[in-house]
Design brief:
11 strands
Length: 448
């Protein structure tokens, strides 16, 4: 499996322009009339609404920016619009090739229309499209938060953490998360999927009281189907976020390995997940989130066992579990930071200096928020009890936001540096050498 993954990576190592053929159209930079189908909910900008649209009859996907107009009914997902505009390819933003980035996401370009340059020519039709149904579920959960009285920054934070919907998140708060090293909390990814996976396992084992239930051979395949079904439903709730889909594939492979009595989490499992995803979406190899997520997991699998040996938990029984949890939190955070640091410096040119402190604060809060969101959605409408649950969830959101802002306010919170690809390679070579030395340093001394 590793060999197959290496072959696949080598096949697409040079810029995969042939993968961008779906975004090659002959009407770019030409002002004319188009018919487009709205394929997603509106994303509010300062002066416009942004829609993802399907340009007919080419089938190309594009971003359409519509001027805000309070007197005109805004289009809904599934509406067919007649527009008059010019679609243009995205350009470079400094060193970042935004146009190619959009094309790797399947977006051929963007266009802008004023309020008099578009009209609805056909209303939306009911559909069973997976993406559309996923967006409806996501929107329903979002409206549920609003109905329960969660608004403002708390709504933006909770929607980003649980649904992957970040459009209501204040730009200053988002920057605070980035500078504090907590941006990964806002992107629904492996951390959030792991929390939901942990909740499912907790329920399977009778609230953790009967762990043997999870190990019964007769129930393993039934549990596999149940766990994977729930995780797929969660991926749909987040709008099929690519990072969540990757995490769900990992969970499915881990559960399958357990059914086959193999080591659940290993480098082979990670490479198998990458290979499976790249078979269907080879362009993901050049996605920033793909590179970051797999680099983080690879570093965790490789480094955490050795770091745990360097930092054994104390022998005190009463504090053993708390010490074990804190040790794991520190080693996981350190390994993930080391694994993603070269890529983060290349793409974002900055890194947080207090990432360990940030993770010690935000990861427990995020776990409580995700668990609390499930309880709030189910029981938020119960008189008195529901109000208490909502107040608790809003309070957790406020504590999380204040914690992130506090870390950002500390002196020298970030380090700015731009790293070319050659530097990325050198840093990973140093990291590999460090891992090898750590491996030999933590090996048990043979008994004489």
């Amino acid at each position: 499996m590793p060999l197959l993954a290496i072959i696949l990576c080598s096949r697409y190592w040079n810029r995969p322009f042939h993968l961008l053929q779906d975004t090659e159209v002959d009407f770019l930079d030409t002002t004319r009339s188009f018919r487009v189908v709205v394929e997603d909910y509106a994303v509010e900008r300062r002066k416009t609404w942004r829609y993802e649209v399907n340009v007919l009859p080419s089938g190309a996907h594009a971003y359409l920016y519509i001027q805000k107009d309070s007197l005109k009914q805004m289009p809904q997902m599934g509406d067919t619009l007649g527009i008059y505009t010019t679609f243009r390819r995205g350009g470079r933003l400094g060193k970042f090739d935004y146009g190619t980035y959009l094309r790797l996401q399947g977006i051929m370009g963007s266009g802008y229309v004023r309020s008099e340059q578009w009209q609805i020519v056909a209303p939306h039709q009911p559909t069973w499209s997976d993406k559309w149904n996923a967006r409806r579920w996501q929107r329903a959960a979002y409206r549920r938060y609003q109905e329960l009285g969660i608004t403002g920054e708390e709504l933006g934070t909770l929607a980003a953490l649980t649904l992957g919907y970040k459009e209501d998140l204040d730009s200053d708060l988002r920057q605070s998360f980035q500078r504090a090293g907590a941006a990964h909390i806002l992107a629904v990814s492996g951390l959030h999927t792991g929390i939901v996976y942990g909740i499912v396992l907790w329920l399977i084992t009778g609230f953790g009281l009967f762990p043997a239930l999870y190990k019964q051979r007769r129930r393993q395949y039934l549990q596999f189907m149940g766990v994977v079904s729930i995780m797929v439903a969660y991926a749909a709730l987040t709008g099929w976020s690519p990072s969540v889909v990757r995490s769900v594939v990992m969970v499915a492979l881990v559960e399958l390995a357990r059914c086959w009595h193999r080591q659940p989490i290993s480098m082979n499992t990670l490479i198998a997940a990458a290979f499976f995803i790249l078979c269907f979406r080879p362009g993901d190899l050049f996605s920033v989130s793909f590179q970051l997520s797999f680099a983080a997991v690879a570093a965790i699998i490789t480094l955490v066992p050795m770091l745990n040996q360097l930092f054994p938990t104390p022998p005190y029984h009463s504090w053993g579990r708390a010490a074990h949890y804190m040790r794991d939190l520190v080693t996981f955070s350190l390994a993930a930071q080391l694994g993603t640091l070269p890529i983060a410096l290349h793409y974002f040119s900055q890194t947080s200096n207090y990432f360990l402190l940030t993770n010690l604060l935000v990861i427990p809060l995020t776990t409580l928020l995700v668990m609390g969101a499930i309880v709030v959605i189910i029981g938020g409408g119960i008189p008195v009890i529901g109000s208490i649950l909502v107040m608790g969830e809003k309070g957790l959101c406020q504590v999380l936001n204040h914690s992130v802002r506090w870390v950002e306010s500390l002196p020298h919170a970030t380090t700015s540096a731009t790293l070319p690809w050659a530097g990325v390679g050198c840093m990973y070579a140093i990291l590999i050498a460090f891992t090898i030395l750590l491996h030999y340093g933590t090996r048990e001394t043979p008994q004489k």
